[in-house]
Design brief:
Blueprint lengths: L6 H8 L1 E5 L2 E8 L3 H12 L14 H12 L8 E5 L5 H8 L4 E5 L3 H13 L6 E4 L12 E5 L5 H16 L3 E6 L10 E10 L2 H4 L3 E9 L2
Parallel strand pairs: 3-4, 3-6, 4-5, 6-7
Antiparallel strand pairs: 1-2, 7-9, 8-9
Helix pairs in contact: 3-4
Length: about 220
């Protein structure tokens, strides 16, 4: 795979800065249509078989978790936070706006890292968000709170993430998850805190409104 020459340029050229439907206090660089952007990303990197451009959309679980954090700032106030598989940086931005001391927004996709930088700046929280591309699984990031949205769509990833989050929770880290109930969500380990009706793109979620939940990992 070729590294993107200028992911920031690519993002600016292929997205629009728009309010998040369920968290309109936050604006993100988002794409109008997933498939066309996916194809343009593959052309930019001169490769095929790339994962979807998760960074270019406000997904249902992320919107729910961002809304919860904005409405319950006590959850993040003064905390050191990780937003795992951050994508656009939506949840990280919500945490920073709600008063988190410092937020690590992690994602393996170099386009996501660039999008997080752009979106954090657009929401005036760039000074409190560090976008990183390293794989945090099997590490202890040394934070108070881990936020994870829309990460349970694939079996192997879900198992790895669940094991990692469980280990952190056992050490005293609070874990909150935003998810509309995807296939590999470990429901037996979770307590549902709130449910929202989240506006989403029909092309992404097969509906225009998705019931999405915020979950807390139980001991």
């Amino acid at each position: 795979m070729h590294a993107p020459d200028d992911p920031t340029r690519f993002i600016r050229a292929n997205t629009r800065l728009l309010p998040v439907p369920h968290a309109p206090e936050i604006r993100l660089h988002v794409a109008d249509e997933a498939t066309a952007l996916w194809q343009r990303t593959e052309e930019e990197l001169q490769t095929i078989g790339l994962p979807p451009p998760f960074w270019a959309f406000a997904w249902a679980g992320g919107q729910a978790l961002a809304r919860y954090v904005l409405d319950h700032p006590d959850v993040v106030a003064g905390a050191r936070v990780v937003d795992f598989a951050s994508g656009s940086g939506l949840v990280a931005i919500a945490a920073a706006r709600a008063g988190a001391r410092h937020v690590i927004a992690s994602d393996l996709d170099p386009f996501a890292v660039a999008a997080i930088h752009l979106n954090a700046a657009a929401n005036a929280v760039a000074d409190r968000i560090a976008a990183v591309s390293g794989n945090l699984l099997e590490t202890d990031p040394g934070v108070d709170l881990v936020l994870a949205a829309d990460v349970f769509y694939e079996r192997d990833l879900a198992e790895a993430v669940t094991g990692w989050l469980t280990g952190l929770q056992a050490k005293g880290t609070t874990v909150l998850i935003g998810d509309p109930g995807r296939t590999y969500l470990p429901r037996d380990r979770l307590e549902c805190l709130v449910t929202y009706a989240v506006p989403v793109s029909r092309s992404l979620e097969d509906s225009e409104i998705k019931r999405s939940h915020v979950w807390r990992l139980r001991p």
